[in-house]
């Protein structure tokens, strides 16, 4: 083999070695780039998944909080709604005010007015208490709580509507004011005051809104006609609320939840 041939073979070998080295560098670069892209994609996916899980967790916590509030106050609101609708039924169908106000003793007359006003104020108290407890929760995540809020809003509308006359009317702000003044206790143990406290510890601020209702009830004892439209609408809204809170009729038989026609 000539010297020239040896030189060319050496150059070719060196060239091939150089090409192999460059190819290895390129392959390593491309491999590392691919790994970096995969790692970046994985990190992004993990970040997105973590965010979704945190959002789902927060929604579930809000839902549990809403369910806890509804569960805590379900029975008090249920009984308040039942007592109020029952009184309305007795006024319109059983001549309650004629018997105990028009023809009753002084004690019966006082009870007929004061207890009727109390039953409405008590309902507004429990309604306001629930509203305050859930006002910062996202009601869109809990179907039951959203439906409850809607039924409460229906009652607000009935009480303030101009289309149902001017008797027994309370604007939304007045309803909330009455509700606020009916609440007692510290956070976590709040409740609506009872009938004895309502009678014995007269609150001038509360009477500011309730005295006109007392006068309406006295007028109603002689002629319930002008008040009938609102009373019937109130009773219907209360029945809807009762059926929602006690769908299986475990606390009050369905036969006791008849809408006035």
Describe this entry's structure for a reader.
Helix 1 packs across helix 8 and helix 2 (96-102) crosses helix 3 (106-134). Helices cover 75% and strands 2% of the residues. The chain is mainly alpha-helical and 261 residues long. The longest helix is centred in the N-terminal third of the chain and has 91 residues, at 3-93. The mean pLDDT is 82. It contains 8 helices and 2 strands; from the N terminus they run H-H-H-H-H-E-E-H-H-H. It has one domain. A two-stranded antiparallel ribbon has the order 1-2.
Secondary-structure element pattern, one letter each: HHHHHEEHHH
Number of DSSP strand runs: 2
* Fraction in helix: over 70%
Number of helices: 8
Measured between the Cα atoms of the first and last residue, the distance is 121 Å
Query: How big a fraction of the residues is strand?
Result: under 5%
Class per helix and strand makeup: mainly alpha
**What is the overall shape?**
rod-shaped
Q: Provide the number of structural domains.
A: 1
- Which strand order does the major sheet show? 1-2
Main sheet, how many strands, which sense, barrel?
2 strands, antiparallel
* Radius of gyration computed on alpha carbons: 36 Å
Poorly predicted runs of 5 or more residues: none
What is the arithmetic mean of pLDDT?
Answer: 82
Topology of helices and strands:
Layout: H1 3-93, H2 96-102, H3 106-134, H4 143-160, H5 172-181, E1 183-184, E2 191-192, H6 195-200, H7 204-220, H8 228-245
Antiparallel strand pairs: 1-2
Helix pairs in contact: 1-3, 1-8, 2-3, 3-5, 3-7, 4-8, 5-7
């Amino acid at each position: 083999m000539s010297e020239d041939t040896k030189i060319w073979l050496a150059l070719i070998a060196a060239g091939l070695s150089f090409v192999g080295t460059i190819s290895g560098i390129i392959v390593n670069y491309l491999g590392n780039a691919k790994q970096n892209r995969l790692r970046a994609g994985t990190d992004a996916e993990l970040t997105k998944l973590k965010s979704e899980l945190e959002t789902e967790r927060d929604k579930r916590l809000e839902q549990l909080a809403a369910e806890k509030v509804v569960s805590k106050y379900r029975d008090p609101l249920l009984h308040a709604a039942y007592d109020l609708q029952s009184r309305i039924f007795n006024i319109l169908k059983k001549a309650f005010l004629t018997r105990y106000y028009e023809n009753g003793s002084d004690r019966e007359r006082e009870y007929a007015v004061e207890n009727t006003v109390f039953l409405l104020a008590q309902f507004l108290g429990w309604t306001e208490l629930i509203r305050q407890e859930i006002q910062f929760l996202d009601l869109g995540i809990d179907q039951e709580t959203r439906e409850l809020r809607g039924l409460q809003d229906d009652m607000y509308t009935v009480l303030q509507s101009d289309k149902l006359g001017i008797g027994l009317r309370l604007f939304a702000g007045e309803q909330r004011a009455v509700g606020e003044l009916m609440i007692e206790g510290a956070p976590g143990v709040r409740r609506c005051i009872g009938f004895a406290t309502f009678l014995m510890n007269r609150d001038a601020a509360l009477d500011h809104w309730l005295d006109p209702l007392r006068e309406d009830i006295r007028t109603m004892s002689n002629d319930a006609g002008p008040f009938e439209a609102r009373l019937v609408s109130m009773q219907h809204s209360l029945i809807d609320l009762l059926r929602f809170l006690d769908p299986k009729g475990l606390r009050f038989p369905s036969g006791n939840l008849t809408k006035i026609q």
